Amino acid sequence: MAIDTGQEVGPNAVPVRTREPAKRSLPGIGLLKGLGVTLKHMLQRSITQQYPDEKPNLPPRTRGVIALKEENCTVCYKCSRECPDWCIYIDAHKETHPPAAGGKGRSVKVLDRFAIDYALCMYCGICVEVCPFDALFWAPDFEYAEYDIVEMTHEKERLEEWTYKVLPPPMLEIGAEPPAEEPPGVAPIPAAEVGVPPLAAGVPPASPPRTAGDSPAPSAPEPAAATPTSAAAVAPAPAEHMEVEPDQETLDRVLAEELAKGTDRRVAEGRAKAAAIRAARKKAGQ
Amino acid sequence: MSHGLLLTAGQSFVDGWFNSLWVVVIAKAIIVLVFVLVAPLGVGYMEHKVLAHMQHRLGPMYAGRFHGWAQLLADGVKFVQKEDIVPSAADSGVFSLAPAVVLVPYIAIFVVIPFGKTVWAVNLDVGIFYVLAITSVSIIGIMMAGWASANKFSLIGALRAAAQLIAYELPLILAAAAVVMQAGTLSLVGIADAQHAFWYVLTQPIAFFVFMVAAIAELTRPPFDMPIADSEIIFGAFTEYTGLKFAFFLLAEYAGIVAFSAIASVLFLGGYQPILGLHIIPGFFWMSAKVGALSFFIIWLRATFPRLREDQLQRFAWVVLIPLALADIMVTGVIKVLVK
Question: What is the pTM of this model?
């Protein structure tokens, strides 16, 4: 039977669950209760904020306007490439810094123009998310309407001014997990090597300003230094890395064998070295 | 009967000021007109504020600098500035006359409403009869608006309004009849005067209930606002109206609230009779306070209850209110005879 009538008769009939019959009360009591609700709410304080007179107290993560901390920007173009609206304009040129002592000069990108067209921006925040060097921040200000649409494009000077409005991030809730950037067990990257302390909060006014000269360089070691620790965390037991000297005896033997087979000398040397290290590990393991 | 004749012979406060009959008539007309144009603004402002606060809002706060007291005046100025549009398919003469036909009866009602023992324009022997007869005229204006607009929503709204009037005029009159039986006079001044000992809401609570429900339905106010149900038929008979004509309809609605509150105050709440014998405060203030309280009640209902469906609305009048009012009249008559 496809149609379930909800009423089953017979010996196996399950008692149909009915709702508890509503308590009969005087007719019209519900209407009076409704009147009571509206009267109660009339006597309560209204929650209206009279906006132009009374400014709203917006939370720190409000997506009001995007601020640019120019000295953190390395002109990596990630923000402008990820922007769904293509509303970020970046112009830059390359400068070659003379080497400290001999060697090749270091090339540095210098920001000429950074502009966000708020007439196009849809406040998705992807640029703030992708920025690897904490150059972009949300500020809760929203009163920047203009009569001319051209004025809605904020150049970097204006974007820099918005950084003064950036609020410190809210406190973590009690019992919340610690932030992922700073796992408590992992030793922080040595400050001397990186140039800045690990970006704990990412608040531009709070973090010590970096000078424009060393800003591109120090960030490079960060990913490299982070890789081994993260790999160790993911894979539980890879072959333990041991520094061993290649076994000279094996090396000579395998090299001679490979050369006898007519293998190319470069390939033969590689195979020989690999075999020598394997042998040396084996020996060390025992 | 002699009691009623005596009251008719009484003088209103204006009669003593001037000797010429025509000057007295003109003075009374001006007083009534000013009252009808000002009092609805007060009720309209009250509606703004009460509805807002019942929804945790503030309502108008800017016009006039202090809590938006001048909001209704600002609205009036805005309505005057609006373009006066008459649809090309509309019957323009009837279309333009309709707002006046709706508004004038409510002005005419205030001629007989007593705001004090001597504060009235005319003390008609048949005051309540006149009032109830003339309130029915405004439905003609709504029908005119509905048919002349050449708009199906207007027509549906007008016909709903007419059906609602037929349904609710009966309980309204029957409830008033019970009071008239108890007071023994049709004069509104006489009815108010007869309540010097106790208010008729104490002896006629059922009639009061029926009268208030029917009055709200007559005004097509929520929860009986089927004729202007904005989610179904836009704004009913007023859909095609703009500018000052539309403002007239709104003014008529608020004048209607004041009028029916005033009638109910006179019939059931003792009119200008003071509470607890506080004769120090003039009757005019007592009457105004009662009218204000009943107007607040009507606005309160709007904030609280959803709209009745058309069939529920008709059923409620014919199945509940009319039998209730008839039974009330019967009981009143029996008690009246027994007490005599």
Answer: 0.67
